[in-house]
Each structure stands twice: as C-alpha cells, then as structure tokens.
Amino acid sequence: MLSRIKDIAAKLAPRLIEIRRHIHSRPELSGQEYKTAAYVAGVLSSCGLHVQELVGKTGVVAELAGASTDSRLLAIRADMDALPIQEQTHLEFASQQPGIMHACGHDVHTTVGLGTAMVLAELGDPLPGSIRFLFQPAEETAQGAGWMIRDGAMNNVSAILGVHVFPTIPGGSIGIRYGALTAAADDLELTIIGESGHGARPHEAIDAIWIAAQVITTLQQAISRTHNPLRPVVLTIGQIQGGRAPNVIADQVRLLGTVRSLHPETSAALPEWIESIVSSVCKMYGAKYVMDYRRGVPSVQNDPVLTQLTESAAIEAWGNSRVQMLYEPSLGAEDFSLYLEHAPGTMFRLGVAVTDRPNYPLHHPQFHVDESAILTGVVTMAYSAYKYWFHR
Ligand code: NI
Predict the structure, then answer these.
(1) Is 335 noted as a catalytic residue in this protein?
(2) In the CATH scheme, what is the code of domain 184-297?
(3) Is 179 within 8 Å of 301 (Cβ atoms)?
(4) What confidence tens digit (pLDDT) does each residue in 249-305 have?
(5) Domain ranges within the chain, ordered by starting residue
(6) How far is the CA of 272 from the centre of ligand 1 (A)?
(7) What is the largest CA-CA distance in the chain?
(8) How far apart are the CA of 16 and the centre of ligand 1, in A?
(9) What is the whole-number distance in angstroms between the Cα of residue 139 and the centre of ligand 1?
(10) What is the 3-class SS of 326-373, one letter each residue?
C-alpha cells in the first residue's frame, strides 16, 4: 500500500505545487478565508468527497466515506489563514495581496490536506472507516479551532492528525515529538491602583509605578524560585502604561502580558499563583489591583499511540535518516490543542528548509519553503491515515 500511495502522490506532485502556489499568491487574513475556502471546497468536491462549507465561519469540512467495517472516525486538520506581513520573497508566485502573506506555511498545510484527500480518494478500495478533513480558518488568532468545534466538526471523531511546517528541519524530513509539542498561551491584563500625589511627597501617595515594578520583579523571581524548573513558565509583560507627569505620582498602571507553560497542571495553577503574588505585593504597599487572566489555547500534547503511528509511517516511507526526534517542544502556541480536548491526536512537523539559500523563521517576510516537502507531507499523512485502521 505504501508504494501505491507514493505512486499516486508522485503523479499528483505537479498539481499539488500548482495548488500551493495558487493559495500562496492569494493569501487571506484570519476569519476572511472566503476565496481560499471556496477553492479548497472545489478541489475536494472534484475528488468525490462530501463537502460542507461555512463550518466554523469560513472553514470547510469534507468526508471521505469508508466501508463502515470500522466505526471509528479519523480527522485530518489543516489551517488556511495568512498573516498581516508584506511578503519580500520576490518569488514569481508571491502574494498578490499587499500586506498579507502565507508566512507560517498554512498554504502548505492546506495543500497537504488536499493532497492527502486526493491520494486516499484515488486508492480505489474504501478504507475500513471514514476520514473527515477539517480546513479551519483563523489559526493565527487562535479562534478557528473553537469555531469549528462549535459547529460540530469534532462530533464523533475518534482521533485527529495535524501537520506544521518547520524551517529548521531539512526539506523532505519529518519531525516527531512525543508529549508536549507547543505551549499553553494565556493573556494577562493587570491594573495596579494606587493614589496620586505630589512627586515630592511620596509618603502621602501610593505609587502605582513603583508597586508595578515590584510586582514584575517579584513575579520573575518567583518563577525561578518557586516553580519546578523542569516545567517551564514564561511570563512576558510586553506592554505597560501609567502616569501623567514627571512630578506626579501615578495612581494607575496597566500591564499587559503573555503567559506560556507546557504542563497542563502548571497551566491550571497559573492564574491563582499569579494573583497570590500580585495581591501580596499590592497589600504590602497599600495598593489595589484588578486582574484579568484570559485563557488562550492549551498546550498541544501529542498522544503516544498516534505519535507512534505517524513515526512508524514516516520511517517506513522515508527511512530513519529522514525522521527526526524533536527533543524540545516549542513555547509557541497552536490551536490544534483545542481539538485534543475532544479526541486524542498528534501533530508532526514537516521539514521545509532548503540547502541552496538562507532559511528564515516562520512569520518572516522572506519565509519560503522547499516545495518538494509537500510530497513528503502528503505521503506521510496519507500513509498514517491508512495505517490508522490497522494500528491499535
Ligand atoms: Ni502556523
């Protein structure tokens, strides 16, 4: 079956590159993926899948019917949105939309999703069970997965597979990670409320700027002294506002930040832990505070059984030398984690680095990919999806 999948994919490869370039040159921002979605739906319908549009606002869901001898339902997820970045690659198929660019490889993910559907549809004999393809909007704003789930995209799903490109892995190689792949990312908004006064008479005021500085320092020190260092937490205050004049003691300071962690238990405990520090520091100096801790997305925790499935599929397809174990997770965030609250799943990394010129990180205006990796991604995904029915 592997050689059959490889043959079909190789035959489709030029068409897949065409598809990727079509999507790449017409990027759309999160939640506005109307043309991309219509194009995706067209490709899926033409391979005979049952397609539903406008799921999760601008998402597309398509089902490849199986023989129903296995009642499980496998989902495969791709994301379709681009970023507000002016592309500077000078590629012939570069973005035609000023200020919008597929700089995170979601054009490749969408193509891999479509290619997988095309290959599996062309196998002829139906698989034992059905496969549902999810093409989601708005991954970059961490909203799309939630929209899809609200519209029922995860109903009855038994397992889910996903892929993300990676510019530090050579093109044509696959990265496999057991356990945490990406971090939980939450938003912190904090207002420290003191009392205004004359800059010359600090004892008659409550200096919100100084107390905010104490809060920041205490939080950073407490991370290093009270948290298990093997369970990382990153707290970045990226924005701070307060004060009116150099000689007036500030009565209010607003702090905005992002909080990242990898372990679910650590993540669960963070709001209370942060608040206990903020409240003790404020209390010590007579200030009040308002804290708004907004949950973003949880950490992607790759399921061991499904990770082993994609690992063995990739090794069979490409050999050990083209399959890398990733020993470190990323502290970036990925809303694929929201699907994992409904079914176990795994996301593998698709290497897209080229050897003949410099590679740029994700979200860079010169980010580019080794297009031959699309074939690697399609075969790995399609063969994993095939093996799923025979792997327990
Ligand atoms: Ni991305």
Answers:
(1) no
(2) 3.30.70.360
(3) yes
(4) 999 999 999 999 999 999 999 999 999 999 999 999 999 999 999 999 999 999 999
(5) 2-182+300-388, 184-297
(6) 30
(7) 83
(8) 20
(9) 7
(10) CCCCCCCCCCHHHHCCCCCEEEEEEEEECCCCCCCCCCCCCCCCCCCH
Is 122 a catalytic site residue? no
Question: Catalytic pick from 81, 186, 334, 335?
Answer: 81
Q: What angle do CA 336, 341, 343 make, to 5 degrees?
A: 90
* Per-residue pLDDT at 140 exceeds 90: yes
Say which amino acid occupies 71: S
Q: State the sign of the Cα–Cα–Cα–Cα dihedral 78, 349, 130, 341.
A: negative
Residue in 29, 60, 133, 79 with CA at minimum distance from that of residue 337: 79
CB 168 within 8 A of CB 105: no
CA of 73 to the centre of ligand 1 (A): 25
Pair of tokens at residue 58: 């601008």
pTM beyond 0.85, yes or no: yes
Distance (Å, whole) CA 148 – CA 57:
8
Residue among 139, 140, 186, 207 flagged as catalytic: 139
Indicate if 184-297 has the same CATH topology as 2-182+300-388. Answer: no
Ligand 1 center–CA 32 separation, angstroms: 16
Ligand 1 centre from 279 Cα, in Å?
36
Q: Does domain 2-182+300-388 have CATH number 3.40.50.970?
A: no
Instruction: Evaluate if residue 391 carries a pLDDT over 80.
Output: no
Query: Hey, which residues does 375 pair with through a beta bridge?
Result: none
